[in-house]
Design goal:
The chain is built from four helices and 18 strands. By secondary structure, it is α+β, with helices and mostly antiparallel strands. It has an 18-stranded mixed β-sheet that branches. A hairpin with a 4-residue loop joins strand 7 and strand 8. The longest helix is centred in the first third of the chain and has 13 residues. It is globular.
Length: 289
Amino acid sequence: MKFTKMHGIGNDYVYVDCFTQRLDGVDLSDLARRISDRHRGVGSDGLILICPSERADAAMVMYNADGSRAEMCGNGIRCLAKYVVDHGLVGPDPQASAADHRQIRVETDAGVLELDLQLGGRDRRVESVRVDMGLPRLAPDQIPTTLDGPTIADRPVTIAGRSYSITCVSMGNPHAVIFVDDLDGVDLAREGRAIEHADIFPARTNAHFVRVDTRNHMTMLAWERGSGATMACGTGACAACVAANITGRADRRVTVDLPGGTLQIEWSDNDHVYLTGPAEEVFCGDWPL
């Protein structure tokens, strides 16, 4: 099986081009666990299959590093967009307004998303991607969480003996955002794991610790459901922007710094959240099935 390793500001995935090869009969959850292993495999935050779609230019099928299926990934979808355009899996865009831009649509388990690609260099490869992440979901049953109320904003909870004030947002996948003054005091491995598996999140959750630096700038640590601590989380950065705005901490357009790099997030007037960031191809290889 041929694969490509890619990352969006350090949030790395193994990609398999299912336009040109088939994985019939392969246990994909087991493959995701084995290939994601950073000591015995390629090493990644998960496995993403790039598949044909009847509804869009391509479909994204995603598995976390622990083999669980995931709905969406903001960093992962930017890399998928770069792959399908740079490798010629989608034809020219007749609606493109300029030679340095390209629009495509990608089908995910969270719906069909629209992406605007910035091209550059002599060979016009994708350099950055702006993703329309759609509408944030704030109702508890859409997160999902067993907590009650119209929204969960700065809600006091106790998890594994520790008190938190959490704000819950779904960007097609669940997020719990905790605002803190000191990120150095966060035990991400212990606290992130406890929040991910807390009983109040029946489908588990992503957990993020966020320091608001100004009304337009935040710094964030990400714990991803099924993958653990990661260098970045695109959907999490979007959730953090929404959470900061609805709790009065920040404006609707913010820069989010993560361990792997920086993302630009805008919660637009049309209530859609837009994510902009780079995508990088690292290397290709062959994996024995």
